[in-house]
Amino acid sequence: MAASLMNRAVSRTETFGAFRLSLNLLRHFSSPAAASPAAENPSSDPIKAKRRKSKKNLIEVAQFLPNWGIGYHMAKAHWNGVSYEITKINLYKDGRHGKAWGIVHKDGLRAAEAPKKISGVHKRCWKYIPNLSKTTPATAPQVEAA
Hints:
Blueprint lengths: L1 H29 L1 H4 L22 H5 L10 E4 L5 E10 L6 E9 L2 E2 L5 E2 L8 E3 L18
Antiparallel strand pairs: 1-2, 1-6, 2-3, 3-4, 3-5
GO cellular component, one term: mitochondrion
GO molecular function, one term: structural constituent of ribosome
């Protein structure tokens, strides 16, 4: 009688062991890593995933421009035809935050005469507008052809 109980116990563990083994095999072969051999070794992958640009606040964009961006145009990424010409920046001690003032420009033309405080300076969506950057007066006089 003890032998028959032992045989039953062994057959149950073998059944569960075989079931567990089949689940592990199924899990292994259905994973995406098993489907593509290049996924196992990412250094041999010829096409690398494109790195996402990190978004910056206005101060982080301005720090790379001469004179902290004063006189340059910046806008939020989702704005169309609207930008600010930066006139003043007050930095906090950490150098990554602060306040900024500027003159609003719409479609490249001034929309206001007086600078106003720029709202949303710390939001991470600012970009530099290079084609509207510092306008310098022409140093050479224009000569008309006779």
